[in-house]
Amino acid sequence: MGKDNVVEFRAPEGIEDPLTELLRTGARRLIQQAIEAELAELLAQYEGQVDEQGRRAVVRNGYLPEREILTGVGPVPIKVPKVRSRTGEPVVFRSSLAPPYVRKARRVEAALPWLYLKGIATGRMQEALEVLVGPEAKGLSASVISRLKRKWEAEYADWRRRDVGKDRWVYLWADGIYSGLRIEQQKLCVLVIIGVNERGEKHFLAIEDGVRESTQSWREVLLDLKRRGLTAPPRLAVGDGALGFWSALEEVYPETCQQRCWVHKTANVLNYLPKGAQAKAKKALQEIWMAEDRASAHKAFDHFVQVYQAKYPKAATCLEKDREALLAFYDFPAEHWVHIRTTNPIESAFATIRHRTDRAKGCVSRNTMLAMIYKLGMSAEKRWRKIRGFRHLAKVIEGVKFRDGIEITTGKTEDNREAA
Q1: Which of 149, 158, 286, 383 is most buried as measured by Cβ atoms within 10 A of its Cβ?
Q2: Which backbone phi and psi does 172 adopt, to 5 degrees?
Q3: Is 0.85 surpassed by the pTM of this model?
């Protein structure tokens, strides 16, 4: 999608500012990891020193009492570790992030994604953390930052190997995420898959780099998911029609139904229209996917093609070629339509990345960038709720048929529908 077509990130109910919520849920972990990395750096300085019994001269010695640092989003609890010297030499651990008696951050103006994006390169992490805790962050050394980055990369590597076969995955959303940050001479394309399990819980299943969303790249992602336990084919996959994902899906999970994303399709169709005609056309497109049943959707579909075919044939063709895949959602529970008509779960989670990376044009390594995106994804995942009507998922798994969002219960009911 184009830069102007990024989906607006709507905050979940009860959360005034999603970026503030990201900071609230992630600041504690970020600060604690940084403090632990500082401690590891100090202990490394004494690694070769031992006491008379051959034991390490300087070791950890528990924690100071937990205390809070007040930030613009509320108090963040922290625990500062202590060290003990066995040689009599006085050694004291002082964290540059949380020195004694500091109880209040200087200012908090950004969210956790900004901190990662701004500070993912070693030379700029001090600047990023300074936003959170003030000028004390300048005391962090490059080696401390490197430890943090290695820790995030290790977490991401473990996550990529985890077993996904413990759950039954019913729906998948797939999309390719491009950012302004560069890997060597190329912009990174991240292939993302989110799944919903039989309990209605949404989780990231894959965050991988790819080559221009190619079929081969998506094939590798899907085959890896299958190897890690996703053996039962999902009932429905949702994605952009331009993806190489669909060819790969037909190879790996040929039984899975396909639903084209209406947000992507709307943007693609409007690109073929002059700006003056886009508002009216967008409303006409909305009448298709908001129709109460498939028959009404087909009528609205035909009307759009008839209106725009003569003057704007490319717009009509762009819509017409994916007709059936755009209306696949009518064969699933109506409560699920709001979730499966678009790739919004991915768009919402990564709108922050698209927005922020456009302003951070640095060059980072492949592993570092993927680890950063993984951390952002995990922060977003914590706020996700179950999908609406999740109790219907059991019926979808069992293969119960739905027509226009309503379960087909008996042959008599089906006959009555045909007559109507």
Answers
A1: 149
A2: -125, 145
A3: no
Task: Return d(Cα 417, Cα 420) in angstroms, integer.
Answer: 5
Which own/partner contact pairs does 123-130 have at CB distance under 8 Å and 24+ positions apart?
124/362, 129/30, 129/34, 129/97, 130/106
- Looking at the fold, whether 241 and 275 belong to one and the same domain comes out as no
Question: Do 108 and 217 share a domain, yes or no?
Answer: no
How far is the C-alpha of 146 from the C-alpha of 125, rounded, in Å? 10
Contact 195, 169 (CB under 8 A): yes
Phi and psi at residue 71, to the nearest 5°: -125, 175
* Radius of gyration from C-alpha coordinates of the chain: 26
Cβ burial, residue 46 (10 Å; 0-12/13-18/19+): middle
Cα(340)–Cα(335) distance, integer angstroms: 10
Q: How many domains does the chain have?
A: 3
- Give the ranges where 335-410 is alpha helix by DSSP (H): 337-340, 344-357, 366-381, 393-398
Burial 225-234 (b: 16+ CB within 10 A, else e): bbebebeebb
Which residues of the chain are under the pLDDT cut of 70?
Answer: 1-27, 70-74, 101-142, 144-145, 179-188, 211-212, 351-364, 411-420
Asked if residue 270 lies in contact with residue 1, where contact means CB atoms within 8 angstroms, the answer is no
Q: Is residue 347 part of a domain?
A: no
- Report how far apart, in Å, the C-alpha atoms of 36 and of each of 80, 111, 327 are: 8, 21, 52
* Rounded (5°) CA angle 188-190-191: 150
> Residue 386: what are its φ and ψ, rounded to 5°?
-65, 155
Residues 6+ positions from 232 with CB-CB distance below 8 Å: 168, 169
Asked if residue 194 lies in contact with residue 172, where contact means CB atoms within 8 angstroms, the answer is yes
Beta-strand relationship, 169-183 and 236-239: parallel
* Spatial contact of 171 and 236, defined as CB atoms under 8 Å apart: yes
To which residue do tokens 């081969």 refer? 216
Domain that holds residue 292: 262-341
Query: Checking phi first, is residue 404 left (phi over 0); if not, alpha (psi -120 to 50) or beta?
Result: left
Taking the C-alpha atoms of residue 278 and residue 269, their distance in angstroms, rounded to an integer, is: 9
Q: What was the pLDDT predicted at 95? A: 83
Q: Are 207 and 219 in contact (CB under 8 A)?
A: no
**pLDDT (0 to 100) of residue 137:** 57
CB 41 within 8 A of CB 144: yes
Q: Both 270 and 257 in a single domain? A: no
Q: Are 390 and 202 in contact, with CB atoms under 8 Å apart? A: no
CA nearest to 89, candidates 62, 59, 53:
59
Supply the pLDDT for residue 409: 84
